[in-house]
Structures are given as structure tokens and as C-alpha cells.
């Protein structure tokens, strides 16, 4: 997949996600979904991971952009990271979450806009040379995919279930 195809796929999937959100009232976005999170918690979660990828692509500290401490990010499970994101955002007002959701996406798309097709084939350590851990050498495009359209597809069903509620 090249950059043009990647951006198109992200934009199409994001439009579907935004349409699902657009069908929800503010009250519905604060209701709890089947996994125990409110709709707005799903948005905060998606925003945090996109903020992290935007930082990664700009060679900034990823966990700081996600508001997750280094110890948790580097030494705990993904579930622990997700729990920290949830705890740090669950009391935030919906308006703040929506702003974060849109801003993090704009940051990601701006960061992605600065990259070439060749850049997307570079590994994680190219973008984060001073971070701990072992780099598998896999192209960074996989990280972008996993934190954008694949991630949207995982969370969109939770938001869709809120549309059927009063």
C-alpha cells in the first residue's frame, strides 16, 4: 500500500466513523456500551492512540502524547495502557473529548502528510531511535493502519449500538 492508498483508506473509514458519531446525541455519547465504556470513552481511546501515532511520526515521545507514563507504556500490557487512557479521560467533559478526538486526527493526518512512500516503509526505531524495546523491523505503515482505520473498525460497533437507545 502506498501513501495515497493509505490516506484514502483512512479518510473513508474515518468518514464512516464520523457518520456513526453524527447519528448520536450528546446523551447517547455518554451512555455505557457493552464493554463498560461510554461512547465518549471510545472516542478518547481512539484519540489517544492517534495522538501517539502522530507523535511517533514526528519523532516525538509517543507515550507523552497519549498522556500515559513511560513505565506503563513500555513495561505493562496494552490493556494496562488502555486502562490508563480510560482513567485519565473518563471524567472529562464530552466537549473536551470531541475536541481531542478531532485535534488528534488532524495532527495525525498532518504528520502523515509530511511522509513519503519510502518513509512509510521505515521501521519504528527510525522514528523513535531512543525508545526502549526491540524493533521488529516491520514498516511503520502497519502501526499507522493499526491505529487508524483498523482501530476505527474495532470501535465503530460499540458506537453503533448506542444509536438504538433513547
What's a quick, concise take on this entry?
The protein has about 170 residues and is mainly alpha-helical.
Features:
166 residues, Four Helix Bundle (Hemerythrin (Met), subunit A)
Fold topology:
Layout (H helix, E strand, L loop, with lengths): L2 H20 L3 H4 L9 H19 L4 H4 L4 H6 L2 H12 L4 H20 L10 H4 L13 H6 L2 H14 L4
Describe the structure.
With 166 residues, the chain is mainly α. It has one domain (3-162): dinb family like domain (Four Helix Bundle (Hemerythrin (Met), subunit A)), CATH 1.20.120.450. It is 66% helix and 0% strand. It contains 10 helices and no strands. The protein has helices at residues 3-22, 26-29, 39-57, 62-65, 70-75, 78-89, 94-113, 124-127, 141-146, 149-162. The protein is globular, with a radius of gyration of 16 Å. The protein starts with a helix and ends with a helix. The model has no long low-confidence stretch (mean pLDDT 93).
Radius of gyration, in Å, reads 16 Å
> What series of H and E elements makes up the topology?
HHHHHHHHHH
| Outline type | globular
Name the CATH class: Mainly Alpha
User: CATH H level: which superfamily?
Assistant: dinb family like domain
The count of β-strands is: 0
User: What fraction, in percent, of the residue positions are helical?
Assistant: 55-70%
Based on secondary structure, the structural category is mainly alpha
